[in-house]
Design brief:
Largest sheet: 7 strands, mixed
Shape: globular
Structural class: alpha/beta
CATH topology: Spore Coat Polysaccharide Biosynthesis Protein SpsA, Chain A
Distance between the termini: 45 Å
Order of helices and strands: EHEHEHEHEHEHHEH
Number of domains: 1
Number of strands: 7
CATH superfamily: Spore Coat Polysaccharide Biosynthesis Protein SpsA, Chain A
Helix content: 40-55%
CATH class: Alpha Beta
Strand order of the largest sheet: 3-2-1-4-6-5-7
Radius of gyration: 17 Å
Length: about 250
């Protein structure tokens, strides 16, 4: 059994929301329904949800089936469910490639990021006429270890890439205009893609706005970020810093 990406329609869309659902299984259904209810309450009607349910194995991961069923149920939900060829960055790019909205947002679907932030970043990018709006985690329900790693990582980033004055590189949701997204040349297939977005935003002199959020605790599974991921972050920061000298 395999899955494909659903085909984009030609109808103009104001807001595309890419939801990263890796191994989220049935919780994907609740997350998508919460966004739909929120958008209806906030009178946001011209939108699409793009559910990314890429998988390593279908043996015990029901996510591809769930995202397909949601796309069959709702006209404004589409999905991508492909056998994985990378990590989070590859998933994000596979979802972004399907987004055609005037504004394109991306959020993790594991429930740590409040869905209300989608409305906040959307309204902020419209009102501020920014190229990119993102959240920063004022409070977070992570372990002390994750908090320390994130703090050190953001300090390291600010030293290597001064000028943006950002508080939290990896936080989502992130939202960009379609024109800003099309200027990005995203290559990362791993967890570094959030930093890659911000490095390129810095180089392209995007107008970036950052707003606070509360990051919830992770329920039902452990974090996918381990020591290997941390070393990847550090290596990639150094590599991208060197690349800056050749731009």
């Amino acid at each position: 059994m395999g899955y494909e990406a659903t085909i984009s329609t030609s109808t103009p869309v104001e807001l595309s929301v890419v939801i990263l659902c890796y191994r989220a299984r049935e919780s994907t259904r609740q997350f998508a329904e919460r966004i739909r209810a929120l958008f209806n309450q906030e009178e946001i009607f011209n939108y699409e949800l793009i559910l990314v349910g890429n998988y390593c194995s279908l043996d015990n991961d029901t996510t591809p089936r769930v995202v397909k069923e949601l796309a069959e149920k709702y006209d404004n939900i589409r999905y991508v469910a492909l056998k994985k060829q990378g990590m989070m960055g590859w998933d994000m790019k596979s979802g972004l490639s399907q987004a055609g909205g005037k504004y394109i947002a991306v959020i993790d679907g594991d429930g740590q990021m409040p869905v209300e932030d989608l409305v906040r970043v959307y309204r902020a990018i419209v009102s501020a006429q920014a190229d990119l709006v993102k959240t920063y985690r004022l409070k977070r329900g992570d372990s002390l270890w994750r908090k320390i790693i994130s703090w050190l990582y953001n300090i390291f980033f600010s030293i290597l890439f001064p000028g943006l004055a950002l508080k939290d590189i990896n936080s989502k949701p992130k939202i960009f205009t379609n024109s800003a997204y099309n200027k990005l040349k995203l290559l990362s297939d791993d967890w570094f893609i959030d930093a890659e977005i911000m490095i390129q935003a810095r180089r392209l002199k995007f107008k970036v706005v950052e707003i606070p959020t509360v990051f919830l605790g992770l329920v039902g599974r452990r974090s996918f970020v381990g020591l290997k991921t941390i070393f990847e972050f550090i290596k990639n920061l150094l590599v991208y810093r060197l690349k800056e000298f050749f731009k």
